Amino acid sequence: MKRHGRSTSLVPALVALMALAAPSRAWAHVQGGEVAGFLSGLQHPISGWDHVLAMVAVGLWGAQLGAPAIWILPVTFPMVMALGGMMGLLGIPLPGVEIGIGFSALVLGALVFAEKRAPLWAAALIVGFFAIFHGHAHGVELPAGQNGLLYSMGFVVATGCLHGVGIGIGLVHRWAAGRVFLRAAGATVAVAGIYFLISALA
């Protein structure tokens, strides 16, 4: 009787395992599509130097300005960028996106080069303004058939990582040689921004 009781008690567990195993292929397909959407978003910001340099420059400038800008700017950019991304996903037009992206590299690079000590509200406004253009560019390039929400999460995460790289580099500003290096990095980003603008206007 005890053996019979044990075998009977295993029936629900076996049924549950079979139920879990049966739709596993279907679940794998759905999750695979979701993963593809997230990975596409994760890769998009690092697919072009215009995005990479501008986002790194946000971190560089935040590090130069110090607290609280060092964390407010890298938080402001992805938040506003997500709004721009939503506009792109919904098909809301935004004129001059590529020009705005080019200007973002030019202006942010120039601010780092000049070691501009802008008020926090002004710095956040500048960063947020350019974030709209970057987000819109990401949003309109959502790959067909992929999850828009996870794609957006992917490019927001990638953007935060690029800001983190900029902050990590920017911490060298505490040394005299580091400040010279940062100014040179800012000048490089600004010159690249000029190139991006020329390419956008060509």
Number of domains: 1
What proportion of the residues is helical, as a percent range?
A: over 70%
Number of contiguous helices: 8
Radius of gyration: 23 Å
> Average pLDDT, to the nearest integer?
82
Total number of beta strands: 0
- Stretches with pLDDT under 50, minimum 5 residues: 1-33
Largest sheet: none
Structural class: mainly alpha
**Order of helix and strand elements from N to C terminus:** HHHHHHHH
Beta-strand fraction estimate: under 5%
Write the layout of secondary structure elements.
Layout: H1 2-21, H2 24-43, H3 49-65, H4 69-89, H5 97-114, H6 120-140, H7 148-170, H8 176-201
3D structure, described in words:
The protein has 202 residues and is an all-alpha fold. It has one domain. α3 packs antiparallel against α8, α4 packs parallel to α6 and α4 packs antiparallel against α7. The longest helix is centred in the last third of the chain and has 26 residues. The termini are far apart. The N terminus is likely disordered.
Brief synopsis:
The chain has 202 residues and is an all-alpha fold. Helices cover 82% and strands 0% of the residues.
Comma- or semicolon-separated keywords:
202 residues; mainly alpha; 8 helices
